[in-house]
Amino acid sequence: MPIKINGSPVPLPSDPRVSLLDLLREDLHLSGTKVGCNQGACGACTVLVDGERIVSCLALAVQYDGREITTIEGLTENGVLHPLQAAFVEHDGFQCGYCTPGQICSAIGMAAEIARGIPSHVTGNLSGDSIALDRDELRERMSGNLCRCGAHNGIVDAILNVFADGPSQFRQAGTPEAAQ
Ligand code: FES
Ligand code: FES
C-alpha cells in the first residue's frame, strides 16, 4: 500500500533504510520540511501523520505504509494559507524561517493533542473537562521545536492567536487580544 503525502499516493522506497525525511526532501523534492540535527532534537523536520506530529528524521518511510502524511506544503489550500501560516506572518513568528515549517506542523499536532485531553508536564488540573492553552502550557508543549533565531515570542503569539480557543475554532489571524 502506498504512503499518502499531502493527499497523493506515493510508492514506498525500495530501500527500507530511507527515512521519511529523506523520502520527502530527496525523492519527492518537498523541501519545506527541514533538516536540522537529524537526530530528533530540534523539531525542524516535524510533519503530521494522520494528524499526529512526529520528527521525520527518526522515522523510516516504510513504517508509514498506508498512512496519511501532511507536510507544510499540504497545509495551503488553493493558494490560501492555513490560518496558522497567516498568523506567523502577522505576528513576526519567524526570522530566517528555517524552523517555521516544523513549528507550524508541530503546533497543529499539539492543538489536536489538547483537544483530545492529553496533559503535559505543566497541566495543573488533570481532572478538568478541558485544558487551557496558556503561555506556559504552550511553551512546554512546543519545547521540542527550537528556533535558532530566537523568534519564540512571535511564535507563541501566533499559535495562541489561532489555537487559544481550540483547534476547531480558528480565530481570524491578526486579532491582538487573542495573544494574551
Ligand atoms: S532534524 Fe529531525 S529533529 Fe532535528
Ligand atoms: S526563524 Fe530562524 S531558526 Fe527559527
Give the SSE map.
Elements: E1 3-5, E2 8-10, H1 20-27, E3 46-49, E4 52-55, E5 68-70, H2 83-90, H3 100-115, H4 135-141, H5 152-163
Parallel strand pairs: 1-5
Antiparallel strand pairs: 1-2, 3-4, 3-5
One FE2/S2 (inorganic) cluster (FES) binds at residues 94-100, 147-149, 151.
Task: Give an account of the 3D structure.
This protein has 180 residues and is of the alpha+beta class. The protein is built from five helices and five strands, in the order ββαβββαααα. The chain has helices at 20-27, 83-90, 100-115, 135-141, 152-163, and strands at residues 3-5, 8-10, 46-49, 52-55, 68-70. It has a five-stranded mixed β-sheet with strand order 2-1-5-3-4, with helices on one face. Strand 1 and strand 2 (8-10) form a beta hairpin. Helix 2 (83-90) packs across helix 5 (152-163). The chain starts with a strand and ends in a 17-residue tail after the last helix. The model is unreliable at 168-180 (pLDDT under 50). The chain binds FE2/S2 (inorganic) cluster (FES) (2 copies). The site of one FE2/S2 (inorganic) cluster has 12 residues, from loops.
Q: Would you count the extended β strands for me?
A: 5
Strand order, largest beta sheet: 2-1-5-3-4
Biggest sheet, open or closed, and with what strands and sense?
5 strands, mixed
Uncertain residue segments: 168-180
Apparent shape: globular
Order of helices and strands: EEHEEEHHHH
Keywords:
disordered C terminus, 180 residues, five-stranded mixed β-sheet, binds FE2/S2 (inorganic) cluster
Q: Would you summarize the structure shown here?
A:
The chain has 180 residues and is α+β, with helices and mostly antiparallel strands.
